[in-house]
Amino acid sequence: MSGRIVVTGCHGLVGAEVLASLRHLGREAVGVGRQMSAQRPAQVIDLAGSEAAAALRCLRESGRPIDAVVHCAASFPAAFDSAEAVAIAQTNRRIDSTVIDFCHEIGARLVYCSSSSVYGRLDSTAVAESRALERATGYVAEKIWAEGEIAKRLPSYATLRLCAPYGPGQKTRTVLRIFIERALQGAPILYFGTGSREQDFVHVKDIAAAVVAALDRPTVNGVFNISGGRPITMRELGMLVSRVIADGRVVVRAADRLDPQDGWRARFDLSNARSRLEWRPEMSLEAGIAQWAQVLKEQGDALGAAL
User: Which superkingdom does the taxonomy of this entry point to (predicted)?
Assistant: First the structure.
């Protein structure tokens, strides 16, 4: 691609890494965010607002042709089955509609960051992208709708179903961040329920590599699972964090709290991304945990975190 690449959600975990990776590769990448940031300059566009379409057209006219859009912008609910999730889904639909319309209008390739949550509850079988999606509501239903609109309307697209992204730029206190913070403070690592729920964490650098692979193959359309390729239970995750950060000295035990997703699996077939995008995850979970822990120590964030 010789033209510009627009990256929405450029202040978020995934968008920031994608933008940095593209610029490191010498690509002309333009970040779009909801607000100005001194650390990460961007084009300020509220993609959910009434002026978003006009603002994107102005962006198009301000420089070289736009060949592709990497769409990372989205709002996230604290829980998928909440009233908040319904309101957030409406916002995300406005955002996604604006971006899809823009790509359709200018003929740009779209790389869309979707979510593995569209699969619902998984069993021990590795799920492929061809699996029929169940009915859903709120945030998940909107993701399914957007995936369908993209496949129906755009001649060039790649939808990436991301599973549990993580990395040093993540501000949300996810389970992995909390485990790392507790290990750095020497506090017991507590998992909910039996600790049997799985996640398959994928480092943000591996996600950025998948995005680049999708951009570099403009004739390869489809949906792709993007995960770390290493499902791990919450109990196992706690033990791994303890080993990586504290040589196993931090205690890992059950909290007095149920996990509504106890026993859920997170196993994804990555063969489609391997064969068609020539992508595979490179960052080991051990290396990613160690990297994040080091950044948190340097920033002083972990030692003062409320546990």
Answer: Bacteria
For the chain, the domains span 4-166+202-226
- The 3-state DSSP class for residue 284 equals coil
Question: Could you tell me where the beta strands, DSSP code E, fall in the chain?
Answer: 4-8, 29-33, 43-44, 66-71, 109-115, 157-162, 165-166, 189-191, 198-199, 202-203, 222-226, 232-233, 252-254
Q: Which fold has domain 4-166+202-226?
A: Rossmann fold (3.40.50)
Element containing residue 18 per DSSP (H, E): helix 13-24
> Any idea which of 23-37, 195-209, 280-294 has the lowest mean pLDDT?
23-37
Percent of the chain at pLDDT exceeding 90: 86
- Beta partners for 115? 162
At 216 the three-state DSSP class reads coil
- Average pLDDT score, the chain: 94
Enumerate the β-bridge partners of residue 44.
Answer: 33
| 3-class secondary structure, 61 | helix
